[in-house]
Design goal:
Among the domains are: 198-457, no CATH class; 499-767, 3-Layer(aba) Sandwich (Rossmann fold), CATH 3.40.50.300. 57% of the residues lie in helices and 10% in strands. It has helices spanning 21-30, 32-52, 74-77, 89-97, 99-112, 144-154, 175-233, 240-280, 283-290, 294-316, 324-358, 372-408, 413-447, 470-495, 502-507, 532-541, 543-546, 551-564, 586-599, 616-620, 628-632, 662-666, 669-681, 697-702, 719-731, 754-766, and strands at 2-6, 9-13, 57-65, 155-158, 165-172, 453-457, 512-515, 574-579, 604-608, 643-644, 650-653, 684-688, 707-713, 736-742. It is rod-shaped, with a radius of gyration of 56 Å. It is a multi-pass membrane protein.
Length: 777
């Protein structure tokens, strides 16, 4: 805190002024025109920018991802990761964002959308009929790469939280185009998903189709060979025992053939999976082919033995239901199978967990944000287990066929060739029928696959544009304009150290005696045509005399009253009028103050003590010499330096010759005696002095007079410099009676002093005559 002593009173003032609501309002009021200007410019710029933009339309297609619409197979049965039960929406979003799908959409659009050559600057903008209906000279609108770049900017794929839907949103200058692109994306995604869903079934169907054709050919060959042999050998039939043996062998061989087909199908599927994982994580291929647990293989072999044994019992005894012993054997086999299958399922689950934990090191693991790699690994391991089960079954069937082959060799030699041909025919026939049944099932499975994507809503052309948002932009412009204007005003206020208002001076501890409005004067004076600048300057100095009814003259009368009551204990008879810096209106103030005092019937003398740049002699139209300096240099007598003015009770002492040493002259003993003489012979002595900060002349007189009147100019005088001037006066034990604020625009200030503005207007309107009766003031 800073301690200040003024007029014998001690108070404290903080270095930083307290900011309160009143000060904020005052700053805003003072900068209102700047705020309005910035506001108008920003709003106009925002409006211009908004209305110059092309309208943008938006259309959205919505697709549903149906989680439960998936096949149930070995992968789903051992789904320890949960990926099969819950389709990851992120996967589908990535598919929609993929380049392959975007290219498919672009190709479809190229077949449908064209643009007139005159509008080449637009990409997809004018939707025309199909290629056949195009006029000559109209070419496709863009290349695929151009469309893909457009998609990156204008197509947005997103999924609402906790929902199984995906929104495909497209923006375009043409509402129909936006809807077309969104719908093309939805259709292409649906078709792609349908194709992906049918891929596995299609692969199985095509493989079975190949096998069916091959087995049909083998069956026909076997039938032809048997027929030819029977004609040549004359064999008609086999005995019952041979027929039964051939039937058993053909059954086993057909099952082995079916198992071989299953093995081939599983291998093809496994190779496809391995090829995919090889591109992402090559190390896993070796791990996957060597990682199958031996115990799993053992369980599969045991299950295969029991299943084959069970099938044999049923095949050899068609009426097994009526035989209690056989029923008991089948129940025991079923119990053993159930136990082994439970163990196998537990072991497979355990194996999968271990397999995922140990497949590759953290450094070599591929980045898998959507879980695709993890799901692929699971399919590989489960397919290997499936393949191992088929191979175990084939191994057991080979063993049984080998046993029956030994028995087959015991058939009489005459019938052995016939038996072999019949056996081959039966095996091929049964295998053909099995494969044909599987082929029909595969066809039905393929055609029943509709994917898990469903288009809920097709996009429709937008009616209203979504951009530019006129109301929002204008609101932003209004807020931004006001905010920027207020910011500029406060920044300007922060860096502005000049005096703006009487309240600002009072907060710094100054006593404001009066605030003088901006003086507006005419150039002509008393019928004399003067130079424009000179006339205005003189008129300003004599405003209280030339226009006594003006608000400015009233403000000077307020100053006179303030000085008269500045000291209640003693009367002020001598005043130094000084400013902190040049051109702040001290000479105008001293002239009008002296005139106002004289008009109050006070015998007043105005002394031009500015020995460096004297001006008062020109203001009052008198000669500069002889003057004050001539008297101090003893070049003139006392009565020679006084000038009687046209104003009653007012006398002027001009500067005289400009001396080389003004400070020494003003500090001389003769000057002190002269001051005392004036004080004793006149009611009021007013000294016009040079600026305080520039020279020491005013300080020399400060402690010889009753008080110092500091003059400040609104918007020009720096508050810190004014503080410095006060400090200098106090240092020489001078008495600052108050401050006069010049050029104060009360209409631009909100606050206490705003009433001056209203008061001056009322005074000017009514033309109150303040000259009468002022002798008692």
């Amino acid at each position: 805190m800073e301690k200040i002593n003024t007029n014998g009173q001690t108070f404290f003032q903080t270095e930083e002024e307290t900011i309160n609501l009143y000060e904020v309002i005052q700053v805003l009021y003072r900068g209102k025109w700047l705020i309005i200007l910035v506001f108008i410019l920003v709003v106009l710029a925002t409006a211009t920018f908004t209305f110059m933009q092309d309208p943008i339309y938006e259309s959205t297609a919505v697709v549903l991802i149906e989680k439960g619409k998936k096949g149930v197979g070995l992968t789903e049965a051992f789904d320890i990761t949960g990926l099969s039960e819950q389709r990851n929406i992120k996967n589908e979003i990535e598919i929609l964002k993929s380049r392959s799908l975007a290219e498919a959409v672009a190709k479809k659009l190229i077949e449908r959308v064209y643009v007139d050559p005159e509008n080449k600057k637009d990409t997809i903008l004018v939707i025309l009929p199909s290629k056949k209906e195009l006029k000559e000279g109209i070419k496709p609108f863009a290349k695929i790469e151009t469309i893909l770049e457009r998609f990156k900017e204008d197509v947005k794929i997103e999924s609402p939280r906790d929902a199984d839907i995906i929104k495909i949103t497209v923006r375009s200058k043409n509402p129909k185009e936006a809807a077309l692109i969104a719908n093309t994306f939805a259709d292409s995604y649906y078709e792609s998903n349908l194709m992906m869903s049918r891929n596995e079934s299609r692969s199985v169907r095509m493989f079975l189709e190949e096998q069916l054709a091959e087995k049909r050919k083998l069956l026909r060959q076997a039938e032809a060979q048997l027929e030819n042999y029977m004609k040549q050998a004359g064999v008609v039939a086999l005995d019952e025992e041979s027929k039964e043996l051939i039937k058993q062998l053909s059954d086993l061989e057909s099952k082995r053939g079916e198992t071989i087909v299953d093995i081939s199908s599983a291998k093809r599927k496994l190779d496809s999976y391995l090829e995919q994982i090889k591109q992402i994580e090559p190390e896993f291929v070796k791990v996957a082919t060597e990682a199958l647990d031996p115990y799993i293989k053992y369980l599969q072999e045991e299950i295969a033995k029991l299943e084959v044994t069970r099938d044999q019992i049923i095949a050899q005894n068609p009426k097994v239901g009526s035989k209690e012993v056989l029923n008991k054997s089948l129940r025991e086999i079923d119990e053993q199978l159930a136990s082994l299958r439970k163990k196998l399922q537990d072991k497979i689950s355990e194996f999968l967990k271990i397999g995922f934990a140990s497949s590759g090191s953290p450094g070599t693991q591929s980045y898998d944000p959507t879980g695709f790699v993890k799901e692929l690994k699971q399919k590989i391991l489960l397919t290997e287990i499936e393949l191992s089960a088929y191979e175990a079954r084939k191994k057991e069937l080979d063993r049984l066929i080998e046993q029956l082959n030994k028995k087959f060799e015991t058939i009489p030699s005459k019938l052995i060739d016939y038996a072999r041909l019949e056996r081959t025919r039966l095996s091929n026939e049964k295998l053909y029928l099995l494969i044909e049944e599987k082929y029909q099932e595969a066809m039905i499975a393929e055609r029943s696959q509709f994917g898990y994507v469903q288009i809920i809503d097709y996009a429709t052309p937008g009616i209203k544009p979504v951009s530019p948002k006129v109301h929002l932009n204008l609101i932003i412009g209004i807020v931004l304009g006001l905010g920027l204007g207020v910011t500029i005003v406060f920044v300007r206020e922060f860096f502005d150290r000049t005096v703006r208002s009487p309240e600002q001076l009072e907060k710094r501890g100054f006593t404001v005696l009066s605030a003088i409005p901006v003086i507006e004067v005419e150039v002509k004076l008393d019928g004399k045509q003067l130079k424009k600048d000179e006339g205005r300057n003189i008129a300003a100095h004599l405003i209280t005399h030339l226009n006594p009814k003006s608000p400015v003259a009233e403000a000077y009368r307020v100053l006179r009253t303030g000085i008269q009551f500045a000291k209640l204990d003693r009367k002020i008879k001598s005043i130094v009028v000084a400013s902190s810096a040049p051109k702040e209106g001290k000479s105008t103030t001293s002239s009008n103050l002296a005139i106002t005092m004289a008009k109050a019937n006070l015998k007043t003398v105005l002394v031009d003590a500015d020995l460096r740049r004297p001006v008062l002699h020109r203001v009052f139209g008198v000669k500069r010499e002889p003057g004050l300096t001539d008297y101090l240099f003893e070049r003139a007598e006392l009565d020679e330096i006084f000038r009687k003015t046209d104003i009653e009770n007012l006398y002027l002492i001009p500067c005289g010759v400009v001396p080389p040493n003004p400070s020494e002259l003003l500090g001389s003993e003769k000057m002190k005696k002269f001051v005392e003489y004036l004080k004793s012979n006149y009611d009021l002595v007013v000294f016009d002095t040079p600026p305080l900060v520039a020279v020491a002349d005013a300080l020399i007189l400060a402690n010889q007079v009753d008080g110092v009147l500091l003059v400040a100019s609104a918007g020009k005088t720096e508050i810190d410099v004014l503080d410095k001037a006060r400090e200098m006066i106090q240092r020489v034990e001078g008495n600052v009676i108050g401050v006069l604020l010049n050029n104060f625009d009360a209409s631009a200030t909100y606050g206490t002093y705003y009433r001056y503005y209203r008061y001056y207007r009322y005074y000017d309107y009514y033309g109150a005559d303040r000259e009468k009766g002022e002798g008692n003031a």
